[in-house]
Amino acid sequence: MSIVHLALPNARAWLVPVCLLASLLSPWVWAQEEGVAEPEPSPAALDFEPTFSATLKQLGADYVMNLRGVEGSDSVPFDIRADQVVTDARLNLEYSYSPALIPELSQLNVMVNNQVAVSLPLPKETAGSVQRQTVQIPAYLITDFNRLTLQLIGHYTMQCEDPLNTSLWAKVNNSSELQIKTTPLQLPNDLALLPQPLFDSRDSRLLELPFVFAGARDARTLEAASAVASWFGALASYRKAHFPVQFNDLPAQGNAVLFRIAAQPVAGLSDEPVTAPTLSLQSNPNDPYGKLLIISGRDSEQLKQAAQALVMGSHTLNGEQAQVGPFEKLQPRKPYDAPNWLPSDRPVQLGALIDPKKMSVSGYDPGTINLPMRLPPDLFHWREDGVPLRLKYRYTPQPQSTNSSLLISVSGKFIKSLPLPSQERLKDDQTLMAKLQQDDSLLREATLRIPLDRLPLQSSLQLRFMYDFIKQGECRDIIIDNMRGTIEPDSSIDLSGYKHFIGMPNLGVFQSSGFPFTRMADLSETAVVMPSEAGAQDISALLDVVGGFGESTGLPATALSVVSADDEAAMRGKDLLVLASGDNQPLLKRWAQYLPASLGGTARFELSDLVHRVQDWVGSDPQVNLQKARSSLSLSDGSVNNYLAGFESPLDRGRSVVVIAARQPADLDVLTTALRGGEEYEQSIQGSLAVVNDKRINSLVADEQYYVGELGWFRYVQWRLAHSLGWMLLITALGVLLASVCLYATLKARARSRLKGSE
Questions:
Q1: How deeply is 89 buried, as exposed, middle or buried, from its count of CB atoms within 10 A (0-12, 13-18, 19+)?
Q2: Band of the pLDDT at 644, cuts 50, 70, 90?
Q3: Where are the domains of the chain?
Q4: Reported pTM
Q5: Of 114, 110, 65, which Cα lies nearest the Cα of 92?
Q6: Contacts with 2 (C-beta within 8 Å, 6 or more apart), sequence order
Q7: Average pLDDT for residues 435-460, to the nearest whole number?
Q8: Among 441, 364, 434, 365, which residue's Cα sits nearest to residue 396?
Q9: Quick one: which of 510, 553, 646, 572 has its CA closest to 335?
């Protein structure tokens, strides 16, 4: 009996979980027997078709979000267009978290504008593995300007804990995608809204804006369109811009820019006569939510006048329609004065690069202060010490610290670390300690030099305050958010010590900065040679390229010239951009001897060792990058269809020609897409000849035939001798010979004088 009595409690202990397991399994068994399918997605999930979607990486998180500590967070901004209203939003989240987290005390919060949209539990069962979950975001939380925040609330013990323990972590993949569904909103026809709704700065996608031409497409009309395209390109900035072209027909939906001469008939629009340069904003007759920006004039000269008034004075316009008067330039532009380029004639204060409010941070591990910089592409840095950076910064000295520092990097490359001394280390300086009694932050200054070859043409100066977290002991570690760091706006960077000098042709600087055309920000020294009988694809290629120039300079191309291949007088004194598709460009036939490639019946391409080079990057030594043509290849069938080439203008020494050529008009889009670049391209455009096939870019030749810029004669001689051993030996020999002759003459004169004295 005693044995049976002792066994009954064990039987009861096993009976409870067995019954519970049976109850859990019975619905599954029943479903298997009855053939019941798994639950279908809800109708709302099936009906959700996002209008806009972007990954966290596309929204600005170039890294996997690493949330650490008891309350770690990271965020990205996202905005909503002015002509859209949000009706639904989802976040397809991909994340993982520490197995050490206590589920009852830990969660992952998804927040929009500091409001919690949802709190995700962190159960033990799925810890340490990648989780994918779709999060519903209430539409009422989303406004015009928004911030999406991922916040970890983490605890690993019920007792006293270290708030920065390494077991407190969660990672959010930057491939997580935000999807937003919107409905269109009809905006009024008011020029004061410009550039909205044709361009909205809150839309981070590629700007795709159709240009419609009603009337003649002569040189002045194309100059007007180029000015407008470069204006939109400057506004689009990092988003880049594409301008499809149509003749006489309006797009079926969306926005467009219409260039209309006189009363050229356009379906859906009135045929009122135009007597003056006019700008108007009207609804698209094919789409009530789309808008047409109509630029019109009696002739192409008035059309260009209206376009220039738009790009230079859009902030002064209002109403549905405006007639504009003559456009006059009050002061000519100077070389290298592009608004987007870092000035090279004077020191520049860092406060002029970003909003000074963004130069202050707080916390033990604050975010990085990013200062975007765009450098002129032809700065000559041979044997230069580096770019002077004069930093003034404030920080909160800790009572004790060992490794607190200000980290200085350029585009992710570490440059230097400046220590942030603690109060303990400063206690011997009574002046500083007295200042700390009045202000808890301390002002420091430092001067350092950044090697110019460490600065890409599009750089980001990154400054990050890093503070030690001093542990006080068990149950005493509390994070107090009283640490502050500020970069003073009057800190400066100075490029004025550098000359402008670069070897050409160089398609790399053409792709990245539009150089040498963008040397004058308004393109006043640029002429575009258009094909004879240019079609829609040819004009679209022109607008895309000029839009890229605007993105580089930040200024519309109001002084660009469009010329024909027969007008050599208009080409003189200009850098030339030549567009060709098929055999519609007669200039390429006349200048065939200067071209490293051709696309006639038999394609010809020059080749160099560049195609066999192991490294994909361009180094700082121009002699290493130089790869002259060594052979020539001709192909009849299966040859490439598109190329870009650069060479010195046959009309003027020191002037450049860049050719953008495709075998057929439709392939021009392949070239302009490659110029915009993107992650889908493994290679970049370099050298003096580059071939583009779909998403493959192959640079074939890098032959610097001429130089542009000015070094000064002494510096130029130094540089030339340093790169030419033969000339160095010859100059040295001549110098020794000249010194010997002078010494011989001097000694002979002395001897003659001594002999005369002895007589």
A1: buried
A2: very high
A3: 1-39, 46-184, 191-323, 347-497, 502-709, 713-751
A4: 0.84
A5: 110
A6: none
A7: 82
A8: 441
A9: 553
